[in-house]
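Open question from group meeting: does this chain pack into something compact, or does most of it stay loose? Before anyone orders reagents, we agreed to write out a predicted structure and look at it together. Recording both the input and the output here so the notebook holds the full record.
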Amino acid sequence: MPAMPFCTFDDSLWPLLRLRVVGEASKPQFEEYLKVSGSYFHRGEPHVVISDLLHVGMISAELRRRQAEWTALHEGIIRRTLLGNAFVLNKAPFFRLGLNILLHLNPPSWPYVVVSDMEPALAWAVVRLEDAGLREPAERIRRHFGLRLVSRSG
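Structure tokens returned:
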């Protein structure tokens, strides 16, 4: 049985980009993840990312530093194109706390949310797209996943 890749990308519902992260990354796998991530930002198109971290493993300090360096290097294009990132993580409180601390200590310059399952992540992503004027893709995604229209009042 072939080894499962560390991260798979699904852009079939673009401008929604879904990432699924599984297990722990080797250094080459992480570099490939960064390369592919960069290719989406370099499209120059606004989009929303949902990061499915339900099966993520530990990320080493070295790879976290590499991620921070990469993000700093690409900050401008990320800020121009990324409408938001929803992190889906329902692991033990330790993992959620770790992500929340990381985001608190080094907050991204784009909107984000941490949720425990996919439906609220999708609903949040649809609202981000609508707020950016991308109503047709938002409606297409809503229909695809059978999401109900969420009232944004109050």
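Observations to bring back to the group:
The chain has a mean pLDDT of 87.
The two ends are 51 Å apart (CA to CA).
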